Amino acid sequence: MAATLLNVFLIASFVVAAAAASASNFYQNFDITWGDGRAKIMNNGLLLTLSLDKASGSGFKSKNEYLFGKIDMQIKLVPGNSAGTVTTYYLSSQGPNHDEIDFEFLGNATGQPYTLHTNVFAQGKGDREQQFRLWFDPTADFHTYSILWNPQRIIFAVDGTPIREFKNMEAIGVSFPKSQAMRMYSSLWDAEDWATQGGRIKTDWSKAPFVASYRNFNANACVWSNGRSSCRGSGASSAWMNQQLDGTSQQRLQWVQRNYMIYNYCTDIQRFPQGLPKECTATVSSSTKQ
Ligand SMILES: *[C@@H]1O[C@H](CO)[C@@H](O)[C@H](O)[C@H]1NC(C)=O
């Protein structure tokens, strides 16, 4: 009996270990979608690089579609003069009323800070931008960028520090992404018309190719396939399904928002002369209560 239980336990841990080990293999988890050879998978699937030159950028997407999950990716952004370049990393469903959860990294001239741009689309409606500076040089090393997406909330995190939370506020009539499965997408492309300092700084093509690197993808997620959802992980590894910000995380979120947030649609009164979006006023009143 005990031996049988132990066997079951060993087999179960082996399956979990195998799933975790395969989780970071880019061959297994992703398809290169465009770029004509500019996206490359290397080191037996442990590393992926995207590159951009004057002719084209490049991109990839996950083979799986997810309906809720905690998705982590380590990214090292384009170093040096990255002005005009945009590196994207996002979840998106398809179709006209799509849902989307975005990280976008807007490059800058050498020594000038990147802008981390975030957005949430639900039922085709976005316009929920928040932008941040980072508290480290994102081109010097890999850092982990995470999207936690469960039925109650979406949390954007950088190296485990939450930078943004978008709560489910369907109760007050704000739609929330919860019924359309999403794939993970990433791309590196040129947006010199607007990306850097409002388009004033153009891409310096003499520095091409521009390269961004990816490793250690991990998805603790529910995979959507043939109309059914199957959730990976159990016990501690599925805690993301009900995860919320505890007191310490709330404080870190506030630290980031106080010191590193450079744009918040929720305070852009000029943009919304008719009144701020509903979720903004609800967020303000609930966070002042805490
Ligand atoms: C680039 O650097 C300038 C100057 O520090 C800053 O104003 C700007 O927000 C930075 N980011 C982008 C994407 O332009």
From TrEMBL:
Residues 1-20 form the signal peptide. Glycans are attached at N108. PROSITE patterns: GH16_1, GH16_2. Its EC number is 2.4.1.207. Pfam families: Glyco_hydro_16, XET_C. It comes from the Eukaryota. Keywords: Apoplast, Cell wall, Cell wall biogenesis/degradation, Disulfide bond, Glycoprotein, Glycosidase, Hydrolase, Secreted, Signal, Transferase. GO terms for cellular component: apoplast. Contains at least one intrachain disulfide bond essential for its enzymatic activity. Its main location: secreted. It is found in: Secreted, Cell wall; Secreted, Extracellular space, Apoplast. GO terms for molecular function: hydrolase activity, hydrolyzing O-glycosyl compounds; xyloglucan:xyloglucosyl transferase activity. Residues 20-214 form the GH16 domain. Catalyzes xyloglucan endohydrolysis (XEH) and/or endotransglycosylation (XET). Cleaves and religates xyloglucan polymers, an essential constituent of the primary cell wall, and thereby participates in cell wall construction of growing tissues. Belongs to the glycosyl hydrolase 16 family. This is Xyloglucan endotransglucosylase/hydrolase. It comes from Beta vulgaris subsp. vulgaris.
